[in-house]
Amino acid sequence: xxxxxxxxxxxxxxxxxxxxxxxxxxxxxxxxxxxxxxxxxxxxxxxxxxxxxxxxxxxxxxxxxxxxxxxxxxxxxxxxxxxxxxxxxxxxxxxxxxxxxxxxxxxxxxxxxxxxxxxxxxxxxxxxxxxxxxxxxxxxxxxxxxxxxxxxxxxxxxxxxxxxxxxxxxxxxxxxxxxxxxxxxxxxxxxxxxxxxxxxxxxxxxxxxxxxxxxxxxxxxxxxxxxxxxxxxxxxxxxxxxxxxxxxxxxxxxxxxxxxxxxxxxxxxxxxxxxxxxxxxxxxxxxxxxxxxxxxxxxxxxxxxxxxxxxxxxxxxxxxxxxxxxxxxxxxxxxxxxxxxxxxxxxxxxxxxxxxxxxxxxxxxxxxxxxxxxxxxxxxxxxxxxxxxxxxxxxxxxxxxxxxxxxxxxxxxxxxxx
Length: 418
Prior knowledge:
It is a single chain. By secondary structure, the protein is α/β, with parallel strands linked by helices. The chain has 18 helices and 14 strands. The chain has helices at residues 3-7, 15-25, 29-32, 42-50, 69-82, 111-125, 132-146, 183-186, 190-197, 214-226, 251-268, 275-283, 285-289, 312-324, 342-346, 368-377, 388-398, 411-415; strands at residues 60-64, 87-90, 102-104, 107-108, 151-155, 172-175, 207-209, 231-233, 296-299, 303-306, 330-334, 354-357, 382-384, 404-408. α9 (190-197) runs parallel beside α10.
């Protein structure tokens, strides 16, 4: 350990210093990608032992999936808040503020609590050499127990079986869907990816699955039988049985069914959630939880919309949604991360749009000129810009009032504009 790293263990730190320490000293998937991924639960178990095994005292809903797990988690949390339950919500990654990852009744964890946790335990966890995500999971469980939450919605970070969150026995497990993402870590077939996601299914704990490919559903059903876990297929729910949701976008239809099915399981287990709570929870998601970046309208004339969709299935949904918005010309502010199959996304995008290529301010971001070159090879044309903000400003300047400006391709690009 270098002198600078050693010094942080000797002196008290303020919040900004703590955050810098966490970003710089701990491997962070958000920033550097697969190099930060530490498969297995040994580190998480060791961290949680240090802080008193808080996860054992928490009631939880566990949510995994390729797409939609963030929206589904927020919808479920919103309903629980409307029902009067003190609700913890753990999600990742954050868009703007690290503390977005840990909320109680929609309020981010106070900065002082982040500092207290790090200062109290950092010397003990240093020999464990945890990743950023492992440490954040331990912080979440510690904080939720300290806040004496009634129930907590816990979103899986990556995969499921070996994800750091997979140390809980929830009230219900939820798996939104299965698609191609993180293939270098989870497997190169739908069946392999589904097997990793199905790893959150626990013995005799009910599981809800969303609409997914048949080969993924087969894996889920087989695992549920093995685990004697009652499985509910949310895709079979009628549209009429699902409340109207504040969140827009075609993909939210399936997320709403999945969330509604999970709430029904909670009701059956004795959680007191009325029809009014359900309806209000669906209609007040952003107010209750602070969710951003899901088909979010940023401005009008020209209309500017941002969405965090970033893989093949997510982009397909977004393109269907764009097609329903009246506009003359599409201006696409695009940034991607470099550790995924970029061509898989680029080949889906419309050649008729004007592109504004950019890179989010993270090391994982694909360099702008590389993105422009890959896009040009597939018939997508535009200019490269030094920042996300510069790209968006250029798009808004060139767009006519009746045009549409879309910002996306990466969670991190959207995080810089919302």
